[in-house]
Amino acid sequence: MAVNRLGKGLRALIPEDAPEEEKQRLETMRELEVARINPNPFQPRQEFDEDALDELKQSIAEKGVIQPITVRRFGNGYQLIAGERRLRAVSSLGLEYIPGYVLDVESDEDMLELSLIENIQREDLNPIDIAMGYKRLLTECSLTQEQVAQKVGKDRTTVTNFLRLLKLPNEIQSSLVRKEINMGHARAIITVDEKDLQLEIWKKLLKNNLSVRKVENLVRQVKNKTTEKKPSEKKEKPFYLLEAENRLQEVLGTKVSINQSGKKGGKIEIEFYSEEELDRIIEIMYED
Questions:
Q1: Model pTM above 0.90
Q2: Which of 21, 27, 62, 84 is catalytic?
Q3: Which of 108, 125, 146, 251 is 20 to 30 Å from the Cα of 257, by its Cα?
Q4: Separation between Cα atoms, residue 256 and residue 270, nearest integer Å
């Protein structure tokens, strides 16, 4: 069984010009003593579906562990990199050994990066866990959004959209984790600035089981009402400008205002809240 089944993160540890003996050593799968495996302190997954875990236990009981876990040497034993659900299932079944790859990962920073990337690439994390994983890669591994996107095999806009989810109220984030709403719902809600309005839309969504398209329409209605309530001598903003603002906000991950002056001209205002935020926006704008 080849290492590349476990994702790009593991392949990155094996240099292309490495001696064949080194490659074979890294790719060797062995039976590991469960009692000697320590948990992963960098585990990005916060929620474990008990039903799914029970199904995995049943599968392992019948057919064994098909895909080995991944560990690094740690003290007199090992530390888990990827495969916590499989390790939990094996432990629960009372099995003493589990197949696994032992990789040479010396620094905690490399361990964190590899663990996050490997778990995110499996695509079975909920959106908030993925967003938190991206955030940790940015802050703890000192990566840029572009570097994160390259390492996890996603485009830059996808990474930005996930990170924006962390600005939603906790109630809406939890609802996304519980699969009461999906990414489409969340992306529509987050274009509304006021938290109380976001929660109001979310409650209507749950109560009426609204589709993404209906939530998008509801968001437009809420924005229009909010604009009408604000005392201003300015005319109501044309629909095409509102759409343009929404598109720019999705790409840049921050509030954008477009104000027209005259028939052809105008100005675009982009908000930022820190030097890091400004650097991030500039980086997006200068992408090829």
A1: no
A2: 84
A3: 146
A4: 5
